[in-house]
Amino acid sequence: MSLFPNLFPEMSIRLKLLGAFLVMLAGFVVLAGAAVVLQLVGAQRAALQEAQHVALAVARMSDQPGPAQRDRQSYFDSLGVLFDRDIFLVDGRGTVVAATDRRVIGRPYEVPEIAQAVADGQPRDFIGPDVFDGAPAHQVVVPLPAPEDAAGDHGGDAVVFEYTQVYDTLMAEAKQAAVLTVVATLILAVLGWIMAFRVTHALVRPLAELEGTVALVAAGNHGARLRVRSNDEIGRLASAVNRMAADLQRQHDALQERNAALARSNALLQEGIARQQEAAERIQHLAYNDSLTDLPNRNQFGAMLATAVARAAHQRHPFGLFFLDLDRFKQINDTLGHGAGDALLQEVARRLRHTLREGDAVARLGGDEFVVLVDELRGDRHAEAVALKILQAVARPFAIPGHELRVSASVGISRYGRDGHDGSTLMKRADIAMYQAKAAGKSNFAFYSSAHDDNSIARLQLESRLRCALERQELELHYQPKLDLRSGRIKGMEALLRWPNPELGMVAPQQFIPVAEETGLIVPLGKWALRQACLQNMAWLAQGLAGLTVAVNLSPRQFGDADLLADIVSILHETGMDGRLLELEITESAIMQDAEAGRRLLRSLKSLGVRIAIDDFGTGYSSLSTLKQFPIDTLKIDRSFIADLACDPEDRGLTEAIIQMARTLKLHLVAEGVEQEAQKTFLCERGCDELQGYLFSRPLPAAEFAAFVQRQRGIDRLAAV
Ligand code: C2E
Ligand code: MG
Ligand code: MG
Q1: Which residue would you say has higher pLDDT here, 403 or 314?
Q2: Which end of the chain is more exposed for a tag (fewer CB within 10 A), N or C?
Q3: CB neighbours (10 Å) of residue 503?
Q4: Nearest bound ligand to CA 693?
Q5: Is the Cβ–Cβ distance between 322 and 386 less than 8 Å?
Q6: What residue owns the CA closest to ligand 1's atom 20?
Q7: CATH code reported for the domain at 14-172
Q8: pLDDT tens, 417-457?
Q9: Atom 22, ligand 1: which residue's CA is nearest?
């Protein structure tokens, strides 16, 4: 327990100090008061004691044996001279018998205190009537011992000393001292109170400042400082608080700096996270959306399809897949450029999105292939309506910058339930149906039908194998000689593709050329054939087989390919073959696809020296006069006419007419598929220029062809010798 327990914990220090000072001042005033009282009482006592001593002494003197009355009086007279006090002797009858002032002698002076003092022999003091005027006066009575002979009813004598004057003098002095004490006390109290205020103020003010400053610092104002006014405890405390505030300020500044750095790195982090999130979203978007059209891509569509299948399985909720492929898109892309192709695809995507209901899903699978998933397909009528809507949307003219295009599409439809119960089957079958629609003519739609499925699957297999074969360079060219009737010499040959496949055997061109044509594979395939034929011809040239013309077939799609001319130029350049040794075989229909473009292309080819032959002539519908508008050199009569020459007079007539017209138009004439001597003779007689057919040779591998030609030339040489 503390020695001085904190009695008033709530009270301010100022009040406590002032209270303590007040208590001290009060004590001081009380002490001063006590001193005053003691002074006064002391004065009273002193006066009384002096009076008693004097009275006692007078009484002793008056009690000396023998002095006569007169002597007593003279003693009193001398006392009166000495002390200038009223002292008198009262006898037992209460009469003044001797007195310092003679005038009172004989006067009666009876006061009870005298009688009591005489009675008990004890001096007494009292305030009794003055012997002169009866006014109250301070008096002391000292009895004289009674004489032995004394008798009677009255007591002995007593000396009475009236000491009012002494009393008053002493009391006046005492009062004066008391007044001085009170005044001094008051002055000291006031000074003490002022001092107390000053000391309290001097103590409390820095403390209050300290409190305020500490509160400011605590509230975050670390710049707040105390004024150090002294070097005492408070001054040192103020310095310590200032140091602490400075430390806090430094720490706070460092903290602020660290916070700012943290905030900066946090902002950077946030920015990084946002960027990463954005990139992740972008990647996610790209992973699931087609970058050109922003439609869902194959991945996303796969997920949509899986959901639709799951829902359809649970809720018996049939849906339909519409597989859409643009007709002739490749051609548009090749002729107008990829920019136009992209713009077209974007517009198609936009139209599809607008054509279909919200719940239907549209996706781009790649290239010009789109797929639409129509939820809740209500029967075939509904499917037909959707397919027609899609076809109509695509059929509207497209305003591609710089062009107005008309495009058609083919749509294949597969229905959940009827055509399959899983996504991949439904996709495959919608694709097959699309090919069925395409086969039926452009701008068409078709429902999947299992009747064509086997064919379609076989066709798809063939396509993928052909693609591999092309990549692995498994294809070959065989060469069928063409015999010049006038010279009887082999002046050229036709290069024909052969595909020896380990599983399928030797695949015939009739099987794979249409697939390659449909899929566009024919373009790289044809280019390879062209280069290979030219290279081979140059190799033969190097071997000494000079002057051979090589004929290469061009399919309609190849002929429409925008890069064809450039490809031929580069192949000729690359192989070093003279353009005049190259003949291109094109069908009538290929030229007629786009007559104007065809004519331009042929002219350009002609300018390279390349010869142009119309292959399978007679099977198309174009008239010779129409064909003549094109810069062509050769007509190849289709082998179907030749085959029936012997037995079909109509074919004979037709062949004759063709030969006749070709001669008139000064076209070189080749007959293909010549198998019999009779056919040869017929064609020879009619003036055909060249013959090609099994009668002379089947298409031969390069080495065999070279041997064949060498043999033939050898025979010729021998014949010449
Ligand atoms: P084509 O251009 O009319 O080629 C002539 C076809 O007749 C060849 O068939 C050839 O082997 C065949 N042939 C030749 N002489 C006779 C004969 O005496 N009797 C019979 N029955 N047939 C004969 P192949 O090689 O099967 O080619 C078929 C078609 O495939 C070609 O018809 C051509 O249109 C196409 N083709 C072949 N190679 C190529 C090529 O490299 N590019 C392109 N685009 N098409 C090619
Ligand atoms: Mg041909
Ligand atoms: Mg032909």
Answers
A1: 314
A2: N
A3: 7
A4: 1
A5: yes
A6: 673
A7: 3.30.450.20
A8: 999 999 989 998 999 898 888 877 778 899 998 776 666 66
A9: 673
